[in-house]
Amino acid sequence: MTANAVRGEAAIHVKGREVLLRPTFDALVRAEEELGSLFALVERAGEGQLKLTEIAALFWFCLAHPGPLTREDIGDAVLAMGLAEAAKPLKTLLGQILRGQ
């Protein structure tokens, strides 16, 4: 499954497989319910103030096909890739939130 950057999709590796992150309206509404305003989330990211838990949560809510993955699996994957590598799919998702379709 290949991520479509034009649609704001990104991919990360979790437990040895690539998973698709798709920022659908439903996914972003669920993320916003937990994380607060998405605009504020984008601002915190721009200021370098985004927390690891917020990155993992946004990725979790944007999973296109969660299957048997747990939220902890996503957190472990973020730790495994490191913040510099996690910033790449994060930037794609945040860009989609700001620009829209």
Compute the number of structural domains: 1
Strand percentage lies at: 5-15%
Mass-distribution shape: globular
DSSP E strands, number = 2
Order of strands side by side in the largest beta sheet? 1-2
The assigned structural class equals: mainly alpha
Which H/E pattern describes the elements? EEHHHH
Low-confidence region ranges: none
Averaged pLDDT, please? Answer: 91
Largest sheet: 2 strands, antiparallel
What is the helix tally? 4
> What percent of residues adopt helix (DSSP H or I)?
55-70%
Pfam family, one: Phage_TAC_11
Protein name: Gene transfer agent family protein
SSE arrangement:
Elements (H helix, E strand, L loop, with lengths): L9 E5 L2 E5 L3 H11 L2 H9 L5 H10 L9 H29 L2
Antiparallel strand pairs: 1-2
Write a compact overview of the structure shown.
With 101 residues, the protein is mainly alpha-helical. The protein has helices at 25-35, 38-46, 52-61, 71-99, and strands spanning 10-14, 17-21.
